[in-house]
């Protein structure tokens, strides 16, 4: 099968990482994959295979640049004639739909990756172009319901398809954990000792991640547990303001902003708890990666987090077995509840956290492994192609 994956950009992010992982999965099954990026440059690791091609349209933000990119995209589709075009994120989704007017596309799937893909104008654009795609997907039941509520897609033409987690890359490793914690070049000098409690978070420094709430929550943690440390991996426009909040709360010794990292899997192996403070999400890939890494999760109750956690996701105010070693969901924006949940998790002890982490990994392997999601996508492509062939 010849598959085109069309994405808005290839910066570090959950959606972009998922597209690269899908490309690897399709290539491993023997399919030809072209990854087309609307903008540039590429900041993530891509597959290396003779069956893989990268095309960068390098569009700017001006209407003229976008129109030029549209016609280059359509010309490529006419020349390569793929069996499937699968677009990801709002700009690529809309452009792929319009491109169908200029190039034959046997099957077109357009995938959103969040319950919040922009304001009313974007939702209207989705609604007006819906007839030009064969299927719209979003990454969680929550995000699908939001799209239907905003009339971005009719309920009969949008389905939930979760992100797939690379359970080979993200996995617990006791030896790697020990080596990472003891390596002077891996952890900054702020770690008091190799056994100090580490809370880890990863994600771009943008409004959706609500890092101010996380910083305020960790001030509560640091006051009660001075040896605890928080590391946040991620870059973005709000980094300066997040650092200012760290400094204002007197947490420079306890909170480290790591910037952009390519070693998230190693940080998860070294950590004790994964935390997410987001105000909104789709199905956060990073939470699934943390679960696959055997980490307990403390998160705001947003987007599809509850779907990832399943029965293991509990409200923070309820004590679970093992003296509080359970995944915790707290209200969005509630720094006190987030801090309390982190403290409960850290005080539960390593054995209780390890037992919870094992259950978390089993859930991801069973329901959200990349291999399972690749199979679901390929089955979807075949089903849509059969429907189109039958209808014609």
Automatic annotation (TrEMBL):
Keyword annotations: Glycosyltransferase, Transferase
This protein's record includes keyword Flavoprotein:
no
Q: Which Gene Ontology terms cover its molecular function? A: glycosyltransferase activity
Record domain Glycosyltransferase subfamily 4-like N-terminal: where = 13-169
In which organism is this protein found?
Answer: Pandoraea aquatica
SUPFAM superfamilies listed in its UniProt record = UDP-Glycosyltransferase/glycogen phosphorylase (SSF53756)
**What highest taxon heads this organism's lineage?**
Bacteria
Q: What is the lineage of its organism?
A: Bacteria, Pseudomonadati, Pseudomonadota, Betaproteobacteria, Burkholderiales
Protein name, as recorded: Glycosyl transferase family 1
């Amino acid at each position: 099968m010849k598959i085109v994956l069309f994405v808005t950009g290839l910066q570090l992010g959950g959606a972009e990482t998922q597209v690269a992982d899908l490309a690897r999965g399709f290539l491993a099954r023997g399919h030809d994959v072209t990854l087309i990026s609307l903008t540039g440059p590429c900041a993530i690791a891509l597959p290396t295979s003779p069956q893989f091609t990268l095309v960068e349209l390098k569009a700017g933000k001006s209407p003229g640049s976008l129109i030029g990119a549209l016609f280059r995209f359509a010309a490529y589709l006419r020349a390569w004639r793929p069996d499937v075009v699968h677009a990801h994120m709002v700009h690529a989704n809309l452009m792929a739909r319009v491109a169908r007017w200029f190039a034959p596309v046997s099957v077109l799937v357009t995938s959103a990756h969040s319950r919040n893909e922009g304001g009313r104008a974007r939702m209207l654009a989705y609604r007006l172009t819906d007839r030009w795609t064969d299927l719209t997907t979003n990454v969680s039941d929550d995000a699908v319901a939001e799209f239907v509520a905003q009339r971005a897609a009719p309920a009969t033409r949008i389905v939930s398809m979760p992100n797939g987690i690379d359970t080979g890359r993200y996995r617990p490793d006791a030896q790697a954990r020990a080596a990472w914690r003891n390596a002077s070049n891996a952890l900054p000098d702020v770690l008091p000792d190799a056994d100090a409690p580490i809370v880890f978070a990863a994600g771009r420094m943008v409004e959706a991640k609500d890092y101010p709430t996380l910083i305020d929550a960790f001030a509560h943690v640091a006051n009660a547990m001075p040896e605890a440390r928080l590391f946040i991996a991620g870059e973005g426009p709000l980094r300066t303001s997040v650092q200012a909040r760290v400094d204002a709360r007197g947490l420079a010794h306890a909170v480290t902003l790591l910037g952009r990292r390519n070693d998230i899997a190693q940080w998860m192996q070294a950590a004790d708890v994964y935390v997410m403070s987001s105000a909104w999400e789709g199905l956060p890939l990073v939470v699934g990666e943390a679960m696959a890494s055997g980490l307990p999760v403390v998160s705001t109750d947003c987007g599809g987090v509850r779907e990832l956690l399943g029965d293991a996701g509990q409200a923070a105010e309820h004590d679970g077995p093992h003296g509080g070693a359970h995944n915790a969901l707290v209200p969005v924006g509630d720094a006190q509840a987030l801090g309390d949940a982190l403290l409960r998790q850290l005080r539960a002890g390593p054995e209780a956290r390890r037992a919870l982490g094992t259950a978390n990994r089993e859930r991801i392997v069973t329901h959200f492994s990349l291999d399972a999601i690749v199979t679901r996508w390929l089955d979807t492509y075949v089903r849509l192609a059969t429907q189109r062939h039958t209808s014609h």
